[in-house]
Amino acid sequence: MLGWGCNLINPTEELPAILIIDEFSFSTTYNTEYSASENISEVWVFANDQVIGAFDLPAEVPVLGEGVTQIKVYPGIKVNGIGSTRDIYPFYEVYIENIDLQPLKVDTIRPVFQYVDNAVIISVDDFETSNAFVIDNSSEGSVIRTTDPEVVFEGDGSGHLKLTAEENLVRVTTNEQQYELPTNRLIYLEMDYRCDNSMAMGLFANTEFDSEKRYIVVLNPTVNDDDSEYWNKVYVAIDPTVALTSTFDTYEVFFESSRDQDNDSEINVYIDNVKLVYFP
Taking the model in full, what pTM does it have? Predict the structure, then answer.
């Protein structure tokens, strides 16, 4: 009886409304934005521009407040594929919906995401008709455009880097594609990949007389516990590297796979939908 009496005296605790975000959609205009592959792993939720928090998907979001409220849902990613470096992806548009919040009332939001209008999107290669990458002179292995439906990510083709059991290093670069990139803007490289050995991605910074190689990220093999392989998508922040090499004129993208110490088999690395995204 004492506890019941205290509850009568104490102010009623405010109860939250509940937002369910169980799924979302993402679309592109293929001619200008290319593949609609994505790896949105979480959402950042705001209510009337007040941050509620970041939530893994699918999400159950408690929001204190009543009445019509503007809910903003920002798509979140793992920067460079690292779980501890999560952030809002600035090149995807925020989803906005007004919801009449009531205590304990459950509302479902299914955001629709797309690229922001002012994003500059450059397709390095989607391997649908050709292969933009060539073997670096200092490496072994091979690179081809594969059309094998067992390994192609989507569409008609994907890039395939291969090492035989006797070869140890494969490095490929964009074939004379020199990208002029801004030195004071956010820049990401997006790509889908599948690999049974670790692989690195980086940039060659070039001038007419000089070239400098910069590694940016090393990606782990995409292999399940049962040894089956899967495709993953990564968002690589390359603007810090571009800023550090701002005296250079152009950039080339490279991918590299050096045989892991415990891997004595044939090595296969697949890439697809490689694109650069930045603000003008």
Answer: 0.92
